[in-house]
Amino acid sequence: MHRIIPLILTLLIVQVVGVRIQPRIVGGVKTSIRSYPYQVSISADGNHICGGVIIRVRTILTAGHCVHRRRPSSITIRAGSDLRTSGGTVITAKSYRIHPRFNRKTLNFDLAMIYLEKPLPFNSQIKAIPINMQRLRSKRKAVATGWGTTSERGQLSNVLRSTQVNILSFRQCKRVYRSALGSSMFCAGRMGGGKDTCQGDSGGPLVIQGRIAGVTSVGSGCGQRGYPGIYTRLPILKRWVIRNTRS
Length: 247
Hints:
Elements: H1 7-17, E1 29-30, E2 39-44, E3 47-56, E4 59-62, H2 64-67, E5 75-79, E6 89-98, E7 112-116, E8 141-146, E9 161-167, H3 170-177, E10 185-189, E11 205-208, E12 211-219, E13 229-233, H4 238-243
């Protein structure tokens, strides 16, 4: 299943920037879960839908649209494997909590916590990642990971992939997405295109120097010139994240 892009948001960005929105690793490389042990695959009814991030032994951070209106019992996470469909540890969700200001039409505050039925067995391939609490600065390099498609309308990758992108200023991002850019959003990518997240990467991490700074949310196409990806900004939501994290 691909990253969900509500129709109203699609129409809004078509009107604003004239480009059809795609559900949102392009230009990346295959990598090992040992390098990114906090990354998990999230499935619903046995099918990969999104990425997620381990922040505690029973808590997974992801995008709100990934779990919106889903039965918790239909959701599982796979941790500790390079592969999307096999290996590692699979655990079912017990419940989840979506940010109270999440807007399914605009994807503002696109954030959720998944609480697992049992704790993850932490080891060299399954670890939590700390949250970046500092203000995001433009031009900083960040790493995005996931099992999403490597091109628009392509197939999901079965092997974990990573790509390096740049944090863009809010002003740069606003020039592209205009009124579609919400207060909880920021952009990362390369204005020249070629490196981006894509379908199936939603909910996954954007990491700066070993700390998660953003959660993959939405974007216009995948790796298109002039249209960076949009992420949920964690530093401004840190109080909600900390308050709703369970051991």
